[in-house]
Amino acid sequence: MAQRINQGQYNANNEFGNYVEYCVEKRPEGAYRRNRILLVVICVLVAVSIIPVVTWSVAGKLFITFVPVWMGLCGIAYWFLSRFVNIEYEYRIIQGEFQMDIIYGQRQRKELMSCRVRDMEIIHPLDDAGKAALASCSHVDDCSISQKKPTPDVYYFTYTENGKKYGLVFEATKKTLDIMKFYNASALTFSDTLRH
Questions:
Q1: Cα–Cα–Cα angle for 16, 18, 23, nearest 5°?
Q2: Is pLDDT of 95 > 90?
Q3: CA separation, residue 86 to residues 29, 103, 134 (Å)
Q4: Least-confidence region, from 54-58, 67-71, 74-78, 186-190
Q5: Radius of gyration, alpha carbons of the chain
Q6: Which of 104, 110, 112 is nearest to 87 (CA)?
Q7: Mean pLDDT, the chain, whole residue set
Q8: Which residue, among 12, 9, 37, 36, has the nearest Cα to 24 in the 3D structure?
Q9: Mean local confidence (pLDDT), 41-55
Q10: Are 24 and 171 within 8 A, CB to CB?
Q11: Where are the beta strands (DSSP E) in the chain?
């Protein structure tokens, strides 16, 4: 049974020591932040929109019992849609397999990608050269905390699958890099600025 890992924590306790799990919550910024605010504003406006109908019309007084139902429906809609504006990323390395999941609203988990560490072509701290390398990929997933203010722990790797080159940006820990070094030392570049 998997245990819940909080933001910035990792679990590396097993009999072989080559397992790591790490979870980060996406920081609300840019369009992501705007969408979170818009969701709240729209749900409140839709919920409150029934009030003028009820108070200003004669027929509206017949629908006064509908107000709690309307508010409840708006609450359910908010609960359902809020998962898309509360995103976490969690990765695991299990027996040399790197797996990245995206978690919506702490309720729904979806596998984003999976590949063998030994199949990674480059594992490097994200810098200008790394951004150029990622530009040559056909698809790149950015699973770091912040796209605007990258931390020193942000790494990227590239791999090829079915003839297409993919890239992933993620928050690395020392334990993660140690395991990656065990499986693919030739592709890994260490950074002295790791915080974890």
A1: 130
A2: no
A3: 12, 8, 26
A4: 54-58
A5: 22
A6: 104
A7: 78
A8: 9
A9: 73
A10: yes
A11: 10-11, 19-25, 87-94, 97-104, 108-116, 120-125, 139-142, 154-161, 164-171
